[in-house]
Model the fold of this input.
Amino acid sequence: MIEAKVSDILNRYARDESSLIAVLQDLQEEYSYLPREALEQISKEMNVPLSRILSLATFFKAFSLKPKGKHPINVCLGTACHVRGAQLILEKFERELGIKTGETTQDLLFSLEAVRCLGCCGLAPVVMVGEEVHGKVTQTKVPAIIKKYKK
Ligand code: FES
Done:
């Protein structure tokens, strides 16, 4: 399945290193991360060493080598949110989800990240889940936010 999908992506481009970023971008869009077996196939078919692909994938922030959760949670730690207790909210998410910042839950439902200023400081502290903004978040609201996306 993954092999056919990767072939499909590869067929869109010239099979040389100049297309590598475009191929990785399509792969990232398809799976929300870069699966290892897909990278091995790309390495073989494009004749680019896997180490070269991995170093590109680690260099660009847009790429992820680990699966991301279906609902990415971004907790803002920008100044306005920080002074209103954002760090404690982030820690509450870690405890509730049983993961550390930067990790994904085993059921692949949630991944947790800390970010800098989401651009709506008036609502501080702010948490984004996917495209949805949650403002004036408190530690006690965290379990309900998670529950909302578990359905
Ligand atoms: S500092 Fe958090 S939204 Fe601006």
